[in-house]
Amino acid sequence: MMTNDFRERPTAQGALEHWYQLKSKLSPNTIRLRLGKPDATVGDTVVNTLADGVVNLAWLFDEVGKLTCA
Fold first, then answer.
1. Residue 31 lies in a domain
2. Can you spell out the DSSP letters for 30-43?
3. Are 9 and 1 in contact (CB under 8 A)?
4. Residue 37 near residue 51 (C-beta atoms within 8 A)
5. Contact by Cβ (8 Å): 34, 51
6. In this structure, is residue 65 part of a structural domain?
7. How far apart are CA 1 and CA 12, in angstroms?
8. What is the pTM of this model?
9. 58 inside domain
């Protein structure tokens, strides 16, 4: 897909089909993971995971609050 000659590149439909093939091989849990830096330490990964969890919990409680207040 990164060739300089555009005639060698796949069509948009071909690229989309390739994406669906790749996506079908991944588990839903893997898809949700954030991409990490190649040089990230275990500590970085833990902090990012915890931060994502806090954001998700805040969103969840906000949505629950909207349901109970409505």
1. no
2. HHHSPP--TT--HH
3. yes
4. no
5. no
6. yes
7. 11
8. 0.42
9. yes
Q: Which domain holds residue 57?
A: 40-70
Q: Which residue has the tokens 């833990």?
A: 46
Quickly count: other Cβ atoms within 10 Å of residue 26's Cβ.
11
Number of domains in the chain: 1
Q: Express each pLDDT in 11-62 by its tens digit.
A: 999 999 999 999 899 887 777 777 778 888 999 988 988 888 888 888 777 7
Which letter does DSSP use for residue 11 in this model?
Answer: P
Q: Is residue 6 a part of any domain in this protein? A: no
Whole-number pLDDT of residue 16: 94
Structure tokens at 55: 């954001």
Q: DSSP strand E in the chain: where?
A: none
3-state SS class at 18: helix
